TrEMBL record:
Top-level taxon of the source organism: Bacteria
Taxonomy of the source species: Bacteria, Pseudomonadati, Planctomycetota, Planctomycetia, Pirellulales
Molecular function in Gene Ontology: hydrolase activity, hydrolyzing O-glycosyl compounds
Protein's organism: Novipirellula herctigrandis
Name the UniProt record assigns to this protein: Glycoside hydrolase family 5 domain-containing protein
Calcium found in the keyword field: no
UniProt keyword terms in alphabetical order: Membrane, Transmembrane, Transmembrane helix
Length: 878
């Protein structure tokens, strides 16, 4: 790996290494190497907490993990010394090559830390954003540089090979800041993965005992002069390392989590990371080792390292008592957000750094490692600031673009679905079940809680305060049955207890639950490992019957009159009756793309099992997103002859359609976001019409799988966007408009997702005035526009001219204010604004004149309550 165009000759240490440690027995060298391997394991696995729950004494740790780190570490230290690439920049790039094992062995950067498809902070193309930090920051520093620096500390004779590493054990301001940062960032990670204080103590005992024993056994080798053999393997040893790693990569790549294997193109792209790191090393200049006497040794260095380790583990032990507390995740998420861009930056700096050593006679005056680190620190600061500025600029640009992606046209649905009859008994008469507003507030962990196990109670209270009668919960199969089918007769696992608590809390607040369950793909990451997958990286489980069994268990436990209802004394008055089967199965993260027929099999089997437990249950599906991509996939779930499924599905030879199984057709729509991404107006009406058109087209096209026309369409996820690009005032106005347009199209339920405080006020006002907003009719032709341009809808209380009604009117966007005359039947009307204000306005000769405020994007509607007398139609408090 000689640098191109370099005048420095390649350094050949082979003759020196053969004579080093001549007076030290080979067994002492072996003990020293085992000690160094243990130090690497501590820095990589203890500091990340990765092996703590399982235990450092576990056979997997001792047989696989330890030797994985051992082989990688000594492979790259040997290559570093033999090629002369030992500057700090070069060592960083060796560490990047070390960290890339996460792409092949564990597949972390492609498939999440658990190999389950769950990426902590989303993705950059095919790679996990936060997971890339393992390659470009964590392993180069924690698994290579830090343990190598500690090795140079316990064996001072190695400092001549790696003089730059003195920085890590020094006492400069940069080092202090670095150590303070580690004390802030590492303890929460260790605590989170510790398995509790007792388990952490057991691991620390093992750490200390093994360190003590190996240190005693290897002391003669560590104290000897010129003991390069500790970190530089000979020819036979190096060949052994290579053979071991080749076998390890081959066996684990194909045998360990094969579902995480990406496509060939992604594998080739990963090869670019290797190539860039190797080219960077090739560009660096080979350097001579420094004489031992030229590298300063501070006797206080080891004391500082020991003090740091004690403080770090003490903090971790204290925090381990709070494992699972949401506050612990704040520094962890901050780390993840920082590490990836910082890792990219440091890798780029290391790539361009030529790695030339300072002259030996100037080492004390101006140490080379301090020069590099000081510059790197400054550059990292500027770089992080630049990256932050870039992200802020991109985010601002996205905000601006989405904020300007307000639909320009809202065409009226030509044949809206008729209003449901008043006597409809959907849901078996459960109280509040017919309410058309579904709360969808906060985050979910897939087992009854919020993200990271936080409480959902405040979210439920927010929904109650808005006057809602529905809430939402997503339930992940992989979270509820991670290790195999659960037998609830033998005990209730913690995940099921948490879900019980959520349902009980919803009952206490008189909220029905739209249970999105079972969720296999999306954020759930796919089926649990024990159920297998029909295709790598996709949702369809190999064992589809196990998924149907899980759906049956949920229905038996949570239906009205089910196990939980009997235990709580609800009998049949409360329970879960609406089940949405998976989340955006056609596209979102782990998906059923190319497995539409498999999804139909899932819906058919799950529906059968749920309805066997509760004949009045509603099967809600498919929960697809908005966009042109939805139509062909959705048609494939209804096209029995097409058999657009996995090879396993085709081999089984069975046919399925979601048409007969689905009671409620669900879809998602983010009007602003979907308009932005689709490039044309993607309103809730257009999204609804696309899905409705497919279901009506396939009503009788699959012989033996015909179904009657669907009447129930629910909007079960959506907002204007999910980044808040539209101001709160405009979003509150949008809520009024969105509800009105959706109900006018015939959509039976709409979701109230993550409403801001001003939106909550608007929702409460709308729900109070229109608890049953049917029939909602377009009525722009029934008003007189005196000035400007306006839109009008009306919701009738009943039939006949004298029936009470509620007008919903607003100025047309970007046309300025509008003045209108409304025909009314009462002698006064009540005006309700999006801000919740109520104003009485008298009528004159059967008309009311209103001035509607304009807005370029989202004019605020008003509700005009027009009823001849109190008690006519739905009552409101005037």
């Amino acid at each position: 790996m000689e640098s191109k165009g370099s005048s420095t000759q390649r350094v050949d240490h082979s003759s020196e290494l053969s004579s080093n440690c001549a007076n030290v027995s080979w067994i002492r060298i072996v003990w020293a190497r085992l000690l160094v391997g243990w130090i690497v394991l501590i820095c990589a696995e203890v500091f990340s907490g990765a092996s703590l729950k399982m235990g450092l004494w576990h056979p997997w740790t001792l047989i696989v993990t330890y030797w994985l780190y051992f082989a990688h570490f000594f492979l790259f230290t040997t290559l570093a010394v033999r090629t002369g690439r030992t500057s700090l920049a070069s060592l960083y790039l060796w560490g990047v090559l070390f960290g890339l094992y996460e792409s092949w062995i564990t597949k972390v950067i492609w498939h999440g830390y658990g190999g389950d498809g769950k990426l902590v902070l989303g993705s950059i193309g095919p790679y996990g954003f936060s997971e890339l930090s393992m390659v470009f920051l964590f392993h180069p520093v924690a698994s290579f540089l830090l343990p190598l620096a500690v090795t140079c500390l316990v064996c001072p004779s190695l400092r001549g090979l790696f003089p730059d590493l003195v920085w890590f054990t020094g006492k400069t301001r940069g080092v202090r800041l670095f150590l303070c940062y580690l004390l802030f960032s590492l303890p929460p990670i260790i605590a989170m993965n510790s398995g509790g204080p007792l388990n952490l103590v057991r691991n620390l005992v093992v750490v200390i005992v093994v360190l003590f024993v190996l240190n005693r056994l290897s002391r003669p080798a560590l104290a000897g002069p010129n003991c390069d053999r500790i970190v530089v393997f000979g020819r036979r040893g190096f060949v052994g390392l290579c053979i071991y790693l080749v076998l390890l990569y081959l066996v684990t790549y194909f045998g360990l989590r094969p579902e995480g294997m990406p496509s060939a193109s992604v594998q080739l792209a990963t090869g670019v990371f290797y190539a860039l790191a190797i080219i960077g090393l090739w560009r660096h200049t080979a350097r001579e080792p420094m004489p031992d006497e030229s590298v300063p040794v501070d006797p206080m260095e080891m004391r500082r390292v020991k003090t740091f380790f004690v403080v770090l583990m003490s903090l971790s032990l204290v925090l381990s008592s709070f494992a699972g507390w949401p506050g612990l995740f704040v520094p962890i998420m901050l780390n993840f957000a920082l590490w990836t861009p910082l890792g990219f930056l440091l890798t780029i700096l290391a790539w361009f750094r030529d790695g030339k050593a300072s002259p030996n006679d100037k080492l004390d005056e101006e140490p080379q490692p301090r020069s590099f680190l000081r510059r790197a620190t400054r550059l990292a600061g500027f770089g992080c600031g630049g990256v932050g500025l870039l992200f802020a600029t991109l985010l601002g640009l996205i905000y601006i673009l989405i904020g300007h992606s307000v639909p320009k046209t809202y065409p009226t649905i030509e044949h809206p679905i008729a209003a449901p009859p008043l006597a409809a008994n959907l849901g078996g008469g459960l109280e509040g079940f017919d309410s058309p507003y579904v709360g969808h507030t906060g985050s979910w962990d897939g087992k009854g809680g919020g993200m990271f196990g936080s409480s959902k109670l405040s979210d439920l209270d927010t929904e109650v305060a808005m006057g809602l009668r529905w809430t939402f919960m997503s339930v992940y199969w992989s979270s509820m049955e991670p290790d195999g089918p659960v037998d609830l007769s033998k005990g209730i696992p913690p995940a099921w207890q948490a879900l019980d608590s959520f349902v009980i809390a919803a009952h206490q607040r008189q909220l029905n639950v739209l249970m999105q369950a079972p969720v296999v793909g999306g954020n759930a990451g796919g089926p649990p490992p024990w159920a297998g997958r029909r295709e790598p990286g996709k949702s369809a489980p190999e064992n589809m019957d196990a998924l149907a069994d899980f759906a049956s268990k949920l229905a038996e436990r949570y239906r009205p009159g089910g196990t939980l209802a009997q235990r709580e004394g609800w009998d049949t008055s409360y329970g879960i009756r609406a089940w949405e089967l998976d989340n955006e199965p056609e596209a979102y993260r782990t998906h059923w793309k190319g497995q539409a027929a498999d999804y139909a099999e899932f819906v058919a089997k799950a529906s059968s099992r749920i309805k066997a437990a509760d004949p009045q249950a509603l099967i809600v599906a498919p929960g697809v997103a908005s966009g042109d991509h939805v139509v062909p996939w959705l048609e494939s779930t209804l096209d029995v002859e097409g058999k657009n499924g996995s090879p396993t599905f085709k081999q089984n030879g069975n046919s399925y359609s979601i048409g007969p199984a689905v009671d409620v057709v669900s879809f998602h729509n983010y009007e602003g976001l979907d308009t932005f991404f689709s490039g044309h107006d993607m309103t809730v009406g257009r999204a609804f019409q696309k899905v409705r058109g497919v279901f009506e087209k396939w009503e009788d096209r699959s012989l033996g799988y015909e179904y009657s026309r669907k009447k129930e369409y629910w909007h079960t996820e959506g907002n204007f966007d999910f980044v808040g690009a539209l101001s709160e005032e405009r979003r509150a106005a949008w809520r009024f408009q969105f509800f009105t347009r959706a109900f006018a199209a015939g959509i039976r339920k709409v979701v109230v997702m993550d409403a801001s405080p001003l939106e909550q006020i608007a929702v409460k006002a709308y729900v109070e005035v229109l608890p049953r907003p049917f029939p909602m009719l377009a009525a722009s032709d029934q008003i007189e526009v005196v000035d400007g341009s306006a839109v009008a809808f009306q919701c009738l209380d009943g039939d006949g001219v004298e029936a009470g009604r509620v007008w919903i009117v607003w100025a047309q966007a970007d046309t300025g204010d509008a003045m209108i005359d409304l025909p009314v039947i009462g002698d006064h009307v009540q005006i309700v604004s999006v801000g919740g204000q109520r104003e009485m306005k008298p009528a004159s000769q059967g008309r009311v004149r209103l001035l509607l405020g304009g807005d370029p994007k989202m004019p605020a509607p008003v509700l005009v309550v027009d009823r001849a007398k109190e008690g006519s139609g739905a009552e409101i408090d005037i």
